[in-house]
Amino acid sequence: MSKSTNVNPDLQREREKCSFNITELTNLLDGGPQMTEERRRREATVLNEGIHIEEVPSEYLSHKEKYELAVKKACLLFKLIRRLQEEENTGMESFRAVLGGTLGAAILQDGSPLTLHYVMFIPTIMGQATVEQQAYWIGRAFNLDIVGTYAQTELGHGTFIRGLETTATYDPKTKEFVLHSPTLTAYKWWPGGLAHTANYCIVMAQLYTNGQCHGIHPFIVQLRDEETHMPLPGIKVGEIGAKLGMNGTNNGFLGFEHVRIPREHMLMKNSQVLEDGTYVKSPSSKLTYGTMMFVRVVIVKDMCNYIAKAVTIATRYSAVRRQSQPKPDEPEPQIIDYLTQQHKLMVGIATAHAFQLSAEWIWNMYNNVTAELDAGDMERLPELHALSCCLKAVTTADAAECVERCRLACGGHGYMLASNLPITYGHVTAACTYEGENTVLLLQTARYLVKAWQQSSGGNELPPTVAYLSRVGAGRRSPPWDNTIEGIIRGFEVVAAGKIGLCVMNIERRQKSGLSYEDAWNMTSVQLTQASEAHCRVFILTSYFEETERLVKNASPELREVLLQLVDLYVVYWALQRVGDLLRFTSISERDIEKLQHWYEDLLTKLRPNAVGLVDAFDLRDEILHSALGAYDGRVYERLMEEALKSPLNAEPVNQSFHKYLKPFMQGKL
Amino acid sequence: MSKSTNVNPDLQREREKCSFNITELTNLLDGGPQMTEERRRREATVLNEGIHIEEVPSEYLSHKEKYELAVKKACLLFKLIRRLQEEENTGMESFRAVLGGTLGAAILQDGSPLTLHYVMFIPTIMGQATVEQQAYWIGRAFNLDIVGTYAQTELGHGTFIRGLETTATYDPKTKEFVLHSPTLTAYKWWPGGLAHTANYCIVMAQLYTNGQCHGIHPFIVQLRDEETHMPLPGIKVGEIGAKLGMNGTNNGFLGFEHVRIPREHMLMKNSQVLEDGTYVKSPSSKLTYGTMMFVRVVIVKDMCNYIAKAVTIATRYSAVRRQSQPKPDEPEPQIIDYLTQQHKLMVGIATAHAFQLSAEWIWNMYNNVTAELDAGDMERLPELHALSCCLKAVTTADAAECVERCRLACGGHGYMLASNLPITYGHVTAACTYEGENTVLLLQTARYLVKAWQQSSGGNELPPTVAYLSRVGAGRRSPPWDNTIEGIIRGFEVVAAGKIGLCVMNIERRQKSGLSYEDAWNMTSVQLTQASEAHCRVFILTSYFEETERLVKNASPELREVLLQLVDLYVVYWALQRVGDLLRFTSISERDIEKLQHWYEDLLTKLRPNAVGLVDAFDLRDEILHSALGAYDGRVYERLMEEALKSPLNAEPVNQSFHKYLKPFMQGKL
Fold it and tell me: Model pTM greater than 0.80?
């Protein structure tokens, strides 16, 4: 925490009236005091290096300069990580500690062209190369003799992996694979670091051998000369152009003109091509699910961080900003005193908690399932997959909404890049698309839910996260409405079950009317995405509620009270957001709804005095927030002016365009 | 329409199966064939100048270069407008024709530093200066002897105008006003063109004379030397820094250190300060409402344009993009064949129509009310004000959602700036904040609605746009549900009335429990914003439905059918979005809801074959769409690659950062 001596008095007053111990909450969110200690020490070590300090803020640079700055920062940061690895002898752990969470992102604001080397290139070799291949490649990759990336998506093909067009055809005469891009749409498109940074790449391509296609397999391909960095013959590589955000990631395109690589460059831990071209199939095709699910769990954790950041910025700003005069003769109130503003902020704070606890829950499940997998038990894999799909979709969509709501809650100043809210949104909204587009993911979960529903109707027992389907089952409106938190969560179970049931009915009805299953599915797919979302709400509400109940057992009474208020707020908020669903599928009454509304307004008022304390507890250093509106000291206006003065346009009183265009124009001489 | 010979065959097929005449719809949207003709001629004239063509796309430039490009473009565009004015002898009409709508925005992608000169500086002089002042200033401004802007908002003060801090103190000894910024928060902040472009400015400041404050008044202040463009003594001027979007607008800050201006520089059409310092009050304070409302109506029209643009891009892309393989042995379908995709696109098309017709309706009302005002009749002013507030809030929020939904519907490619969707979002979301922050505006409408409700309860007759409050009044659930378009719209009236009634009840209840009216209002304000939005929905649904019914009377049967389908889609979509409200306040049943859902799905299927025809009818030239994904010819992938190759990073095979950072880093020598 960066404490300034000169704190805005309104913000100071907020901190004084906080009812709980802020450090206690920080420790709880970190997972214990020693974890807080460790995180803070790590942050101090890394930030003391000053890699994050920009001479000219990167938003004023050209696209090309942004890339060059990103390379510089990434090299310095990874150099630091290597040093830490040696000093602390921690191996990959140092990467996770520095790059995971908010710290790495604070330094690599615009993304980094080296991230995929560590996050995809090395792990893919570790996961899919044979022992001999690993011996050859891993050391070179770790030592950075080579810099790699991972190329799967193509210009014309994203989500549907089977549709990829790049081919790798085995030539038994030379014992080589020939990589080729048969069309423009076959060009690889998007991989980070691919454009001008990486000299090697893992390429996913359709494997052809002995005239037969065996589907998508991974190959290591050299792209650039190791000395000169010039693209090798037959390699068409470049960058894909400017994006909404993350312009430091150096996303690239890659096309092949009959490029030959040795047979040994196919990663053969699973499937193999023998010297004579014989294809030996992988024993299981589900083994690659693991990384995908791991990445999705990481995304959920990222979403907590982004929300925490945005809501810290907006809440502190709302305590400093004053506006209007509802009562004559009284000063302009802090805008956080407006209920509409509390409505925009408080649910953000609760969402950060809810997602963190949901992420921990699914993280544990992931570890259990992985352990079971290693023991050959794949039973819970589909359940985990279904859960990770909808959770990724719902948390990224909610996070985008939260961050954007926070930005808009800061009025015009939220539109300034100096607020750091637009850039945060750029990162969050990207997550709605990458690693599985959200609508596609919701439909994957829906497929599992429909199956579970049918199994349940068939009298089969269901896995834990869908067990409620059997419990609340077919009977609509059956249980009397219970206007408590537990009652609302049970209500959401009834809603989810009701929606899934309705989807199944609609699909069957459409099949009976003559449609194929696929067409009936498609016609019902809008409803299916909604059913899938409803299922995910059940999971988030349940895990947030249950995990908080568990956590607060050891908390002080003051903290317990506020954490439970936040859970209440979150659950009641969602009940009001989904009141139509509750009215359709449960026996909630108009009187219950009006009570919920008052409960909600009452909770906002109760949480209001603790708002700043709650965001302080996220313990995000000023360097991590990187926001003129959100700094710990609340010197909002001073910082906005300081940031403005950094604009290169302000370095000269008169810009050259005056002489070049404006004056001639005014004089009619242009 | 820019027709290429080489159209993507999928897109070609879409056009062939369109059931209606596209030109007929274009004419109808334009207001007649001669209007289409005129617009096209205007577009051709302006675009032939080539001002919009960028050597290097502006997204690759530095912040400073972006400004310089914006000045150049703005000067060239306004020079062209001057030429057209002379050639066609049209006066201000040429400005509106070129700058209004989509044409000006297509050239000034990033906003323009000269816009406020025309949109605020000149109109304010025209509206608030005396005849003598106009004689002096208007000519100079029109001739561009001076370039001006308009400064109201301050660093610490936005919506609440009475809170502005800048002072203008009259000194009768010298017959001057002294302009001063007493604090940092008093600095003017945001005005477009203020930073480095304008040399004059209208400044809104607290007028002090004879020791008394008389509130906010307008003053003309010279900022820069007319020859050298250097800031004058006591003037602190500069730019506020980079923003989410519109980085060509040159938004500036402005502080005064006891800057003296002649008495004649106060705009005195309304209030005056006499030589001896005597203050003479304006006869009416409502006269300035006009411009504010005018601007809001213009915003609604802008929102149509942005939505039309985004939905054209996303729909054409969805016809070209193919993905997945739901049925084995069949090719990957066009993604527009997925119901979930239709769900994202079709409501956007309908929204553009709905907003256009709502904008026309309120435009007519605005003109009537202005005419009444001129005749001294102010009766409908509050009603118009209330309607313009909520309509600005709801249409900007809906437009932001529509545009973002379109962007996400294009997957990863929507994240590319080459799609033009991120930049479009940047413009639209800005409108949620400027010219009245949306939550504040909704609460202004709510204040009117509460008053109307109380008048109605008192038996008074209500103005037309709120007359439904008396009609559906207090009785809840009274009329039997009618599952038709008219029935749904009546249902929305019941909802809005129910919500307003509930708000009034809650405010009164809270007052009875001891709260002041202001606190009771604040505690109910979340509900009040929702009531206000519900009222706005009634207006939009009604005007869209009624105006379409009127319009299609003269349309061909084919066009009539599809336009009515779109109205149905829009109304049913909103019924399903607001099903909770309908269940709470009307007698709609679960069976009705399921019917609505099927009706909706059925409408999507019916509209599907006409999707491309419908967006073609918006008749947005490729130069206006400015999108690799949305061009008329559908050469999506070719254009994406062409755009990528324009990146300056792709001009060199090896970027200097390799030698400077990456290679030393890899060799452990960094």
Answer: yes
Residue A637: exposed, middle, or buried by beta-carbon count in 10 A (0-12, 13-18, 19+)? Answer: buried
The residues, ordered by sequence, that sit 6+ positions from B152 with a Cβ below 8 Å of its Cβ are: B161, B164, B188, B191, B204
Decide if domain B1-31+289-646 falls under CATH 1.20.140.10.
Answer: yes
CATH of domain A438-616: 1.20.140.10
Distance CA B57, CA B64 (A): 14
Three-state DSSP class for B214?
strand
The pLDDT tens digits for A261-314 are 999 999 999 899 999 999 999 876 555 666 777 888 889 999 999 999 999 999
Q: Looking at beta carbons, which residues of chain B come within 8 Å of A516? A: 327
Tell whether the torsion through CA atoms of B91, B252, B444 and B394 is positive or negative.
Answer: positive
Topology adopted by domain B116-283: Butyryl-CoA Dehydrogenase, subunit A; domain 2 (2.40.110)
* Nearest residue of B to residue A317, measured between CA atoms: B156
Q: Which residue of A has its CA nearest to B575?
A: A580
- B654 interaction partners in chain A (CB closer than 8 Å): 196, 228-230
Is residue B321 within 8 A of residue B334, CB to CB? The reply is yes
Q: What is the ipTM of this complex?
A: 0.97
Q: Between chains, do A65 and B62 touch, taking CB under 8 Å as contact?
A: yes
Is the CB of B242 less than 8 angstroms away from the CB of A647? yes
Cβ distance of A645 and B526 shorter than 8 Å: no
Tens of pLDDT, residue by residue over B352-408, are 999 999 999 999 999 998 888 888 888 888 999 999 999 999 999 999 999 999 999
Domain boundaries, chain B: 1-31+289-646, 116-283
Active site residues of B: 435
The hierarchical CATH code for the domain A147-283 is 2.40.110.10
Length of chain B: 670
> Phi/psi at A111 (nearest 5 deg)?
90, 170
Q: For residues B591-626, b (16+ Cβ closer than 10 Å) or e, as one string?
A: ebbeebbbbbbebbebbbebbbbbbbbbbbbbbbbb
**Closest Cβ opposite residue A243 in set B229, B415, B578:** B415
Contacts of residue A476, defined as CB under 8 A and 6 or more positions apart, other chains included, come to A494, A498, A585
**Rg, C-alpha atoms of chain B:** 27
d(C-alpha A177, C-alpha A203), whole Å: 12
pLDDT for A416-436, tens place per residue?
A: 999 999 999 999 999 999 999
Token pair in block for residue A61: 């640079």
Q: What one-letter code names the amino acid at B3?
A: K
Given an 8 Å threshold on Cβ–Cβ distance, is A241 in contact with B158? no
CA distance A347 to A574: 10
Chain A residues in contact with B215 (beta carbon < 8 A): none
**Cβ–Cβ of B657/A72 closer than 8 Å?**
yes
Q: Note the pLDDT tens digit of each residue in A468-505.
A: 999 886 555 568 999 999 999 999 999 999 999 999 99
In this structure, are strands A279-280 and A272-273 parallel, antiparallel, or unpaired?
antiparallel
A158 neighbourhood in chain B, CB within 8 Å: 323, 411-412
Beta strands in A70-226 (DSSP E): 148-151, 167-171, 176-180, 188-189, 200-209, 212-222
Distance of CA B37 to the CA centre of its chain: 25
Q: Tell me the C-alpha distance between B17 and B613, whole Å.
A: 9
- Tens of pLDDT, residue by residue over B257-284, are 999 999 999 999 989 999 999 999 987 6
